[in-house]
Design a protein that fits this description.
This protein has 538 residues and is α/β, with parallel strands linked by helices. It is 47% helix and 11% strand. It has 21 helices and 12 strands. The chain is globular, with a radius of gyration of 26 Å. Bound molecules: pyridoxal-5'-phosphate.
């Protein structure tokens, strides 16, 4: 790739750009590359993983109670007496990391959630052994109940919430998005030419997927500009009043800006939904667990909202591929399907008749399950059962962590990294109560103004070709940041992930940015001096 032509750089897609930046940063062999473009966390939750490994040991002892007369063959766990056998296992292995956690989990499930401890152990053993297809396909029975408690605690909290919701365990937020787009189209809820609103800036796939030939949706941008602290403005939200807009897709707390929607905008969206009861909301709240007292739009507008949650970021579990989709038992999606014209309903009857004799009673969320496996393979759909076992243990870990020590540690990691960055930049740490700090968006104009002055910022922005500063940073210092533009920001900005590197790396990134800024400033001063000399010559 020819990187010497700045006009070409402006044309690269975000993915090509990332590769080109890495290539540029690697030009000097003896220098370290600092890739702050990645959202993958470099920390992970340990205790629920210890629990998983111990559960595996216990499940093996269950299995090996059968076929003892054969080598390397085991059977299924037995429901009868499983609780007593678990207690013997826990006593024999007391002191091993994870055993105490499992005992606590069993007690919590029985004493706090009012579920059968034996049923729970049996479901978990069967799941971790992976010896049966996932049944029910949408989610294992107790897994759904326990993860439901977790979702309730983290996404709804103390907000009033009436009724139940259904969850579907999927292979991460990625699968949730893919499945939802597909089923919204297959069920004629979103059709080619329909308009959807996107809360901007946003995780890039939400911009790219609707434009694919599969969907051909029209995008309406609802902007959250930097001068409003990355919050939606009232006039932008008012765009949602247009009945042409079928759905509103957003990420909360946002990626890349990493701020949660403020209370005022949340209330305004809820009010708009009251005026527009047909509006569908898809809220991707994968960063919600990093925020204090988080309340999702799913809690505020349950009838209209599809919730997407992923365990990837909070538990450092991107490789597990673990997420959920949730919908309220009474929702606008099922209503929309029921009110489709008769001929369309007949075609949907034909689509789903292989899995139920009453296709019209099939809920939207169960259609998503069926569609995920091309309907005909519905009976072998569902998330891998060992993954569901680990998901349950993540959920229980969080539910039992009454002091929120894990969340406090997460917040501490991000705060210290951001402090290191700003200390090296020589600037005061900006404060925003709505920030969860997973990422940080450096707006170039604001940064240049704070480092020098507004005049210099104007001069610099007038000079810079799109992405030029990012390439100079990569070339001269080995630091990789992603352009905010790839996420749909109007201003020149850079996204720095605070999840992926160590504290001292962020200090080095701050120093590198400072160095580049001072080079630009030196050029600005020189050109200013030249202009002065010229004007006095005449
Ligand atoms: C990381 C991320 C995802 C993808 O999450 P996985 O569960 O790892 O697939 C989805 N949405 C947003 C906003 C993300 O930042």
């Amino acid at each position: 790739m020819d990187l010497s032509n700045p006009d070409k750089l402006a044309l690269l897609s975000p993915f090509e750009l990332k590769d080109a930046l890495i290539q540029t940063a690697q030009t000097q062999r003896d220098r370290l590359m600092l890739n702050a473009g990645r959202g993958n966390p470099n920390f992970l939750a340990t205790l629920p993983r210890h629990g998983f490994l111990q559960l595996g040991s216990f499940a093996m002892s269950e299995s090996e109670r059968s076929y003892i007369y054969m080598e390397d063959v085991g059977g299924f766990p037995k429901r009868e007496g499983i609780e007593a056998r678990f207690e013997i296992f826990a006593t024999a292995n007391a002191g091993r990391p994870g055993v105490r956690f499992l005992e606590a989990a069993v007690s919590y499930v029985r004493d706090q959630l009012g579920l059968s401890a034996g049923d729970f152990l049996y479901e978990m053993c069967e799941a971790i052994l992976g010896c049966n297809y996932p049944v029910p396909v949408r989610m294992l029975r107790l897994t759904e109940e326990i993860v439901g408690h977790y979702i309730h605690r983290e996404m709804i909290g103390t907000h009033p919430f009436v009724g139940q919701f259904d969850t579907y365990a999927v292979e991460g937020g990625t699968a949730a998005m893919t499945y939802l787009f597909n089923s919204l189209r297959e069920n004629h809820i979103l059709e080619a030419g329909d308009s959807i609103a996107l809360g901007m800036p946003i995780f890039t796939p939400y911009i790219e997927i609707p434009l694919l030939n599969d969907y051909e949706l029209v995008e309406v941008m609802i902007d959250a500009p930097p001068e409003n602290n990355w919050q939606f403005t009232a006039s932008e939200l008012n765009k949602l009043l247009d009945p042409k807009i079928k759905a509103f897709f957003l990420v909360n707390p946002s990626n890349p800006a990493s701020v949660k929607i403020n209370d005022e905008s949340m209330a305004r969206i809820a009010e708009i939904v009251r005026q527009r009861p047909d509006l569908i909301i898809l809220t991707d709240d994968v960063y919600g667990t990093f925020a204090d007292n988080f309340v999702s739009l799913f809690a505020m507008c349950p009838h209209n909202t599809i919730l997407v949650y992923s365990f990837s970021k909070y538990f450092g579990a991107t490789g597990w591929r673990m997420g959920v989709i949730a919908t309220h038992e009474s929702n606008v999606l099922d209503e929309r399907i029921a009110s489709l014209p008769e001929d369309v309903l007949a075609s949907l009857d034909a689509r789903y008749h292989s899995i139920t004799t009453e296709p019209r009673k099939l809920k939207f969320i169960d259609r998503v399950v069926a569609d995920s496996r091309t309907v005909a393979l519905n009976h072998t759909a569902g998330l891998s059962t060992p993954v569901q076992a680990q998901m349950t243990l993540f959920a229980l870990f969080s539910l039992m962590n009454e002091s929120d020590s894990y969340q406090k540690s997460m917040k501490q990691i991000f705060l210290r990294r951001k402090q290191a960055l700003y200390k090296a930049l020589g600037l005061e740490l900006p404060h925003d109560a709505n920030s969860v700090r997973y990422y940080h968006l450096l707006d170039l104009e604001i940064l240049a103004t704070r480092m020098y002055d507004a005049d210099f910022a104007r001069w610099m922005l007038g000079r810079l070709k799109p992405n030029e500063a990012l390439f100079r940073l990569a070339e001269e210092t080995g630091v990789i940041l992603l352009p905010g533009r790839g996420f749909g920001t109007a201003h020149q900005s850079a996204r720095i992930s605070l999840a992926n590197l160590n504290e001292y790396d962020y200090a080095n990134i701050g120093l590198s940015i400072r160095k580049l800024a001072s080079e630009f400033h030196a050029q600005y001063v020189m050109e200013g001096d030249k202009a002065k000399t010229l004007s006095t010559d005449h």
